[in-house]
Amino acid sequence: MKANKIEPNKVESENIYFIMIISEKIGFFLKTLSKKNGTIKPM
C-alpha cells in the first residue's frame, strides 16, 4: 500500500518534467522557425 502512495507522486513529477522538456523543444522550434522565416535558411 505504501508503494502505491509513492507512485502517483513519482509519475506526476515525471509528467511535469516531460511537459517542461516538450515546451522547451516547442519554444526552440518556434525560434528556429521565426529565424528561418526572417532570414535565409541555414541549410
Report on the structure:
This protein has 43 residues and is an all-alpha fold. It has one helix spanning 2-38. The protein is rod-shaped and about 50 Å long. The model has no long low-confidence stretch (mean pLDDT 78).
Properties at a glance:
mainly alpha; 0% strand; 1 helix; 43 residues
The amount of helix comes to: over 70%
Discrete helix count: 1
In what range is the share of β-strand residues?
under 5%
**First and last CA, distance:** 55 Å
Overall geometry comes to rod-shaped
Order of helices and strands: H
Which structural category do the helix and sheet elements fall into? Answer: mainly alpha
CA radius of gyration = 18 Å
Mean pLDDT across every amino acid position: 78
Unreliable spans are none
The beta-strand count equals 0
How many strands, what sense, and barrel or not for the largest sheet?
A: none
